[in-house]
């Protein structure tokens, strides 16, 4: 028997209360034991939802590695706010436990120069160097999302020596998906799993059991390309190399999940005429900066459509019914164009639209526009004939619908492809261009045909 939504909510609330009691009242030994089974994201959720309790009171009894994991889970622009809950010396200890990519995200998101200087001063020399390296790469590349924590094994080792080494760095091994084999110059030679190590004889050379055909990313690869690699091959981790094929970092599946979420959110915002950075609970000023420019662009395109309508003012004044029908033509064209644009933008993002199949997809979209236009146009023509008793009015409406929906689907294909060739995000301005074309051509086709058939419509 499935649980009701009310039962699920009660269970979640009970879990939150249990976690709250644990953080506030449990003994040190009990707290330490229980933390092994609690995900940092659950603690962070409690920090955000518990308004009656000071966040510092919830977190101060937790060990530094757990605090570091909780900060890792926090949004980029809120990480430092969590860190500032603790004294200066403890901040340094927590920073030591944080991963390099999360440190880079924190540093990169800070706008206050004085706070940034303080934070950098708390980093160890090693962390400062790693963060500086990561921030030197564009944030939307493999180098920008990778972490510099990984386990590399020299290619002259045996299984026995490798096991001894892994015992020395046992804490790091717990969080590793794979081991990477390199030479003395740090050139990537291959990869192997812990299973490969523990199931091989002690005297086996690492070179004999490693996978020399390891998949890898270049530091300058776009994060969308990397995301497709993870999806295509079911990866959990991907090594990153520089121009000299030297291993410089790794990208894990949790990083890619963040990338996928960011890219999807950004595309949805762009297609709705919003900035990719606006957040639902963000400041009013950010929302205005995000939305107003695109509304102004839409206003200008609306003036263009209005100008086209003005060209046929005489026709409309003689057949008043046209003013009620023309919005149907443009509205359906806009819907058809949005459908086509959405499919193409998604196809481009997933690498499904390329030079080899571009013409075939174009022809398919053209035929979709023709056939759906014929179907919708036929329905509209019949309805207009029944309502107004004029077969020519139905004919004009049906033909305009066919032409506009053909134009809409073709535009829905051409605009994203053209933007991609110009190295502009296809989701960024596609909606504005497609809507403009369907409005302007919709009015032009409908009112132009009405003008040609004007004697039959009066």
Task: Describe the overall structure.
68% of the residues lie in helices and 5% in strands. The protein is mainly alpha-helical and 458 residues long. Helix 16 (223-233) links the parallel strand 4 (217-218) and strand 5 (237-241). The radius of gyration is 30 Å and the shape is elongated.
Question: Can you tag this structure with a few keywords?
Answer:
458 residues, mainly alpha, 3-stranded mixed sheet, 6 strands
- The portion of residues forming beta strands comes to 5-15%
Shape: elongated
Widest β-sheet, arrangement of strands: 1-2-3
The string of secondary-structure elements, in order, is HHHHHHHHHHHEHHEEHHEHEEHHHHHHHH
Helix content: 55-70%
Number of strands: 6
Mean pLDDT rating: 85
Q: C-alpha Rg, in Å?
A: 30 Å
Task: Briefly note the structural class of the backbone.
Answer: mainly alpha
User: Cα distance, first to last residue?
Assistant: 66 Å
Please describe the biggest sheet, giving its number of strands, its sense, and whether it closes into a barrel.
3 strands, mixed
Identify low-pLDDT runs: none
**Count of discrete alpha- or pi-helical segments spanning 4 or more residues:** 24
